[in-house]
Amino acid sequence: MDRILIISGTALLLAASLAGCASDGSLELTTGSINQQKAVAKAVDPVCTTLSARIAELRKEGTPDRIAKVAAGKTKTANVKREALARMTELDAANKQFQQKCSTVATPKTPPKTAATAASATTDAKKAADEAAKAASKAGQAKAAAKAAAAKTAALAQ
After folding, report:
1. Of 28, 59, 64, 75, which has the highest C-beta tally within 10 A?
2. How many CB atoms lie within 10 A of CB 32?
């Protein structure tokens, strides 16, 4: 009987000490590793809500879907009304504003390409293509010279 009393007393003492370690000081016994603070609702910016609603409205009108169907068409030309183009421009602008003001994704800090940068890239590409053509020409000449040398060597060997 003493054994049962000692074992149950030890178990009770162990349980109480573990519960005390997990407690935050109140009488509420919870696991201490779980954050018990009440989640504070993050305030949503009204501008973001307005932009989100405008984007949804523009998409519901169906203009982006119609433009996508026209773009996927088989003909080289297509008729698109200026009104549809204006709506697509408005949708793009709303998306851009939303990304700038409301997005949590970090945007890259690289500056946009300018016309001068694009022109220099085009010039560099042309130079690289010219150099590649020269190298191919030289490779062709080297190959022809190697064939001629092989033919001379074969003629001398006979």
Report:
1. 64
2. 13
**Secondary element (H or E) of residue 19:** helix 2-22
Cα separation, 45 vs 117, in Å, equals: 37
The residue whose two tokens read 């009488």 is 27
Task: State the pTM of this model.
Answer: 0.41
- 22 is a domain residue: no
Task: Report yes or no on 96 lying in a domain.
Answer: yes
Summarize pLDDT for 130-155 with one digit per residue, the tens. 776 676 677 667 777 777 777 777 77
Helix (H, G, I), strand (E, B) or coil at 26: coil
Burial pattern 65-89, b for ≥16 Cβ within 10 A else e, equals eebeeeeeeeeeeeeeeeebeebbe
